[in-house]
Amino acid sequence: MNNNQTVEKLRTMRISAMADLHLNHLKTNQTSQHTPDEYLNLLTDCEFESRHNKKVDRLLHQARFKQSASIAEVDYASQRNLEKNMFHRLASLEFMKQRQNIILTGASGVGKSYLAQAIGNQACLMTHRVAYHTTARLLHRLKLAKLDGTYDRELKKLIKIELLILDDFGLQAFDNHARETLMDIIDDRFNKCSTIVASQLPVSVWYDIIGESTIADAILDRIVNSSHRIDLKGESLRKGIVK
User: Fold this and answer.
1) How far apart are CA 220 and CA 215, in angstroms?
2) Most buried pick, 18, 148, 196, 230, via CB within 10 A?
3) CATH code at position 130
């Protein structure tokens, strides 16, 4: 068969990385350096890696992180109250397999958002669907969705997110809409997928911040009891490089 036809057929089938590598080997006369099995494995690995990288790039884009964060760049200075082994266990994403949550608390600037997004980034690298939201903006968006009739559809999108990050939790007071919407989100995701909540406020005051005792009890029962908790200490990292 004509080699050019083979390359074109591969591209028509959208096996582009394999087509490009095969064409390169043809031009440089390297095909004879491998056995047929070795050459097939080489082409297959190239296509697999290309598709994997494209999927990761797409997941990172869809997650909408507000900063580039990496597990490798996390600062474990002793004054932060962040134990390295414990955080690395979380970074293994075993908590997601167990449908557990993470709660990150601490003063403004101590790196809560960075840690949440570092785990989110790691989840994307492992091809999980992740979404980063500031809590108030997400709740406002869902309030508008109720008005235009797309609320149920938006909730269904959230349940498909394997790791949801809710940042700046509790910075704005919860009205009836916000409480009910948060309850819908947490209840839909309970025992199905994981959530990371980052807040300047200690968990001890969340009950009063959410308000309405019945809903607050239900929300906290679903979030707190199945969560790994990290209470960060120390000075603001925004004075230098945020990690």
Assistant:
1) 9
2) 196
3) 3.40.50.300
- Last-in-domain residue among 61, 81, 108: 61
53 is written with which tokens? 């990288």
Q: Give tens-digit pLDDT for 153-175.
A: 999 999 999 999 999 999 988 99
- Please tell me whether residues 113 and 53 are part of one structural domain: no
DSSP-based three-state secondary structure for 135: helix
Going by C-alpha positions, the residue among 176, 172, 105 that lies closest to residue 135 is 172
pLDDT tens readout for residues 204-213: 999 999 998 9
Residues 104 and 152 in one domain: yes
d(CA 164, CA 192): 12
- How many structural domains compose the chain? 2
- Are residues 55 and 88 part of one domain? no
Beta strand ranges found along the chain (DSSP E): 101-105, 130-134, 163-167, 194-199, 227-231
- Helix count and strand count (H, E) for the chain: 11, 5
Bridge partners, 131 (sequence order): 164
Q: How far apart are CA 243 and CA 239, in angstroms?
A: 11
Beta bridge partners of 230: 104
Pairing of strands 227-231, 101-105: parallel
User: Distance between CA atoms of 177 and 16, rounded to whole angstroms?
Assistant: 48
Residue 242 carries which DSSP code? -
Q: What is the C-alpha to C-alpha distance for residues 9 and 21, in angstroms, rounded to an integer?
A: 14
